[in-house]
Every structure is written in C-alpha cells, then in structure tokens.
Amino acid sequence: MTADCRFCACPLTLELIDLGPQPLANSYLDPSPQAVAAEQRFPLRVMVCEACFLVQIEQAVPPEAIFHRNYAYFSSYSTSWVEHAGHYAAAMVERFELNALSMVVEVASNDGYLLQHFARHGIPCLGIEPAGKCAEAARARGIDTVVDFFNPDTARRLAADGVAADLTAANNVLAHVPAIAEFVAGFPVILKPDGVATFEFPHLLRMIAETQFDTIYHEHYSYLSLGVVERILAGQGMRVFDVEPLATHGGSLRVFACHGAARHGETSRVAQTRQAEAAAALDRPEGYGAFAGRAAEMRDALRLFLDDCKARGTRVAAYGAAAKGNTFLNYCRADASDIAFVVDRNPEKQGRLLPGSHIPVRDPAALRDERPEAILILPWNLAGEITAEHAYVSEWGGRFVVAAPRLRVL
C-alpha cells in the first residue's frame, strides 16, 4: 500500500533510500538476554514527495514510542553544542534587543542546555520538553519546563496562562514531528505580533550533497529544505525573513520566521538559499537519484575496514554512542565482534548496549584502560572536538577513524 505525504497528502512513489529494518536509534538496551530478545525493529525507508518535495520516513513510529521518559539524549554532554547554544543566545539578545521584560520559549528544550544562557542574561524563559528525564535535568538548572509535546492545544493552554514569546527557539525538532503542519501551527499562537520564531534543522541540501545517510533514523520523520519549510510556515500565516547556514550536524540551516504582517524585512540570504536549492534540483526528482548508490559505497568501505581489522587482529573501539552512528552501524551490519566497545560521556548510556549492534557502552576512561588501536568516531561531525579532547590516544599508537563522508584514518 502506497503511503501518503504527511504534509500535502499526495501518494509517495519516489524512494530516496531503504536502510532496512532498524531499531530506534536512541533506544539503548539493558545488557540482559531478555532486553535483547525484546528489541524491536521498524522499516527505515525514506521517500520523496514529488508534489511538495518533502523528504520523509515512509512508515512513522509514534512519537510516544521514541520520546519517552527514559529517552537518553541529553544535549549538555556535547561541549560544542552547548557553546553553539551560548553563541545563539548572545546573538539573539543583541539582534532583537531582548531584556528582562522579554520572554523566550524553547520547544524541545531538552535539559536546559540553551535556555540556561538566556537565564544568565536575566531574560524570562520557558522550556517545553516531552522527555521527563530531560525536563528534570532542566528544572535542576532552574529552567521552568513544561513536560508535554508541543502542538496547537499546548500553545493555546500556554497562551491562556499569559505566555507570549518575543522569541521561540526550535532546534532540531522540526524534523522530529510526524504531523509537521500541525506542529508549526502552535507557534503563531504563542508568538507576539512582532515576535521571531527560529528553527534549526539539518539542511537537506548538505545531506544530499554529502550523502549524510546516517542522519536518517526514526526520530527524523522529515528531511528539510528551505523551500519546503517556507511552504509549511506559509500555511500557518508565517513567513521566512532570514536564513543562516550553520556548521552544526554536518550542515544545518537556521530559519527566522515571523507573522505575515510583522515588521521584519527579508534579507538577501533567503533568495540565495532558494537559488542554491534550485541549482541542486531539490525541487525536481532528478536531485535525489544517486543518493542510495553513494550510501552503499560508504557502507561497503566501512565494512571492508572492519573486516580487515579483524583479519589483522587490530582491536577497534568507537567513540560516541550517537544516533547517527547507530544508523551507520546497523546499515553495515556491524556488531560487538567488529567493535569491542563504544565510549560516551553520557552516564545514561554507559553500561548499556547500542541498539541493533549490541555493542557495550563504556565511560571514556575505557580508552586509556583498553588502548584500542583504532577508534571509530561515530558522530563524525564532532571529530575535531573529540580528537582534540582525546589526543592522548597517540601515546600507544592509537588512531581515530571516521567513515563519512568518506573513510579516513586521522
């Protein structure tokens, strides 16, 4: 049965890539036979709508199955991401003249990693976060946080309680909602007449150009271009007035939007980004045809490297129990016989197993204890940060390796 586009409802017939049945990328397992036996896998096939060109997962897993109380992603464990949030807060305070009379609302606020910077500026702020453990961590930082999924009903309840935002932030959440138009419909409800809504998301332009197939997992229901986001926002009476390219997550886009009648004028960067997307044929089927073949080449290169290490007796570990790494490992059919362990700073993941591959997760101190010869960096977009923090691996001749956008020994 053909699925329909979750934005425009047209039938989906153009396949971008089929990564096969995969577990939920952030569902880490307890190291017990029962937990391993109970693990579920879901189809991970990505389609392109040839009517509106929203790129999307064909079969959606309900958000409640993903963003549950035990959801294990905590933003604050990435030093560079917290710094990114700090730079964002400082820039927004200056550009939009935010002060103690302003209000900042973040949707999908996680553990308070971003709003803490606004709080330090003395600006009132509110987080909205569905994962209970993340919300608890935010409250421990003094960030007022509502535990709920954001939608028009949530927005109306907040507005009735007097919440009116000068700025809303939604970083890496627009792709995480199945009913994307309904989700966006909540923002104009809580936004002041001249308020600004910012959205950050991995840019489809970069994903296609650099074959970033490992950014695909069930949490990411959509893969977004500016053109598609403009259409979705316009349907809710909002318009884009500025965009900013970002280096985060392998290449992201920050979109600035407002009410249709707001005073913000459109910058030249909007037209430039539209032109770049058109040049890449993101508004035509031919823009998507070579992606799956290039991903298969990357998979085969990592598989060959792991097999060669095994044949040579080279011990391989990995750094970063990241969702994107789980997609890559499961697509490559890698497991604990290929990679002895993975280290991660997040104690919520330590002592557990990666989904699908069942590789054990340990504290980063295990690198010094075990001295593996090769360390595969799974969150390749953070390779600079990781290699700088763990330069000591050279003491025993250890080498870091990344598999994307091509296999490299660093």
Note down, in words, how this protein is organized.
The protein has 410 residues and is of the alpha/beta class. It folds into two domains: 75-267, Vaccinia Virus protein VP39 (Rossmann fold), CATH 3.40.50; 291-409, 3-Layer(aba) Sandwich (Rossmann fold), CATH 3.40.50. 32% of the residues lie in helices and 21% in strands. The protein contains 15 helices and 17 strands. A seven-stranded mixed β-sheet has the order 6-5-4-7-8-11-10. α15 links the parallel β15 (374-377) and β16. It is globular, with a radius of gyration of 21 Å.
As a whole number of angstroms, the C-alpha radius of gyration is 21 Å
What percent of residues adopt helix (DSSP H or I)?
Answer: 25-40%
Distance between the termini: 46 Å
Class by helix and strand content? alpha/beta
**How is the CATH topology of the largest domain named?**
Rossmann fold
**Quick one: biggest sheet?**
7 strands, mixed
Contiguous helical run count: 15
Sheet with most strands: strand arrangement = 6-5-4-7-8-11-10
How would you concisely characterize the structure shown here?
The chain has helices at residues 33-38, 63-66, 79-95, 115-120, 132-140, 152-160, 180-184, 187-190, 204-209, 226-234, 268-279, 291-312, 323-331, 365-370, 383-389; strands at residues 14-22, 42-48, 55-57, 104-107, 125-128, 145-146, 165-171, 191-202, 222-223, 238-246, 252-259, 316-319, 342-343, 361-362, 374-377, 399-402, 408-409. It is α/β, with parallel strands linked by helices and 410 residues long.
